[in-house]
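Would you mind writing out the residues of a protein together with its fold in token form for me to study?
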Amino acid sequence: MKLLIYSHFFAPSVGGVETLVLSLARGLAGLRAASGDPQFEITLVTQTQADKFDDRSLPFRVVRQPTLVQLWHVIRASHVVHVAGPALVPLILGLLARRPEVVEHHGFQAICPNGQLLIEPAARPCPGHFMAGRHGECLRCNGGLGWFAARKLWLLTFVRRFLCRRVSSNITPTTWLGGLVQLPRVAAIPHGLEFVAAPVEYPAPASRSPVIAFQGRLVTTKGVGILFEAARILLAENRKFELLVIGDGPERASLERLSEVAPLAGQVRFAGRLSGAELHAAFARTSVVVVPSLAGEVFGLVVAENMLRGLPVVASDLGAFVEVLGEGGLTFPTGDAAALAEALRRLLDDPALATQLAERARQRALEFCDFRGMLEAHARVYHQARS
């Protein structure tokens, strides 16, 4: 089967969608039929420039920044079109070309004009104004972008929903998201983790101060400010710990300034973006991972990856996190710093509970994020779409 995967963003750009699309395409390229032949001939189309990335190292063809005519021809030459997120141009062309289309939802673009389910500029989770028909709230939420941009985002959400209603399948990484999008032919397929990392040795040596770690892009929606507030509460109790912030982003400078004010001063270390052995070494010292996101999460790769490392995870109670964690971690009400401090207090004061959660987390991740199972589920969707 000739499969076209369209992803607006792709390597060498760094992000969750890029990671997931690369992993999926690479895995599908390795699937074999009973005869030993590849099940899929994959072409990946993206608007991301290659820069120094070597596309020849990948087991599939990559087409970057095609013209409209080139994209039309690639779609026409495919049996099934997989679109990572409801991107308008490939969906419209696929509809015109009468090709079966599959949309994999990596965000909330089909139910929220800003794609984050976040009320701006207050940075509060949105209760779902667009789907409830409270469109004035949507326009006010995005009003900071200007009159024209706010209305454009609002109108395009209707277009995305129109197109998604006509595709062969809408794939969501969680059942929770599938319920939110309210679209026909939804298939919930959890993201599989391609590389099963060896678990870190847990707990970390007792001779060290506890390390509370955050990993993610440093933007407002990731909730680092909530973690800082919780840390202040714990430090006021004369608790000793280190706060480790792994990642980078546009909010790093402002967060570093906040960390220099008492009582956080001297307790926070910014490690920047880590990978490979450096990342493993950082987590080998970690006592608990906190994922305090405010919105914008449809799965939670950081949650799943650290569960797989065998670390206890405390996450905000966003629907996706609750589903991924299962019984493998603790949650707290989104945006509630006092509740986060209480959850951390429980784990720091009860090493047996922390160890139990770490063991549950790894087992849950191995079962829920099975990579082979994810590939086979996608393959079934593609074959059904073509039949």
Remarks:
- The first helix runs from residue 16 to 29.
- The radius of gyration is 22 Å.
- The chain has a mean pLDDT of 94.
- The longest strand covers residues 41-46.
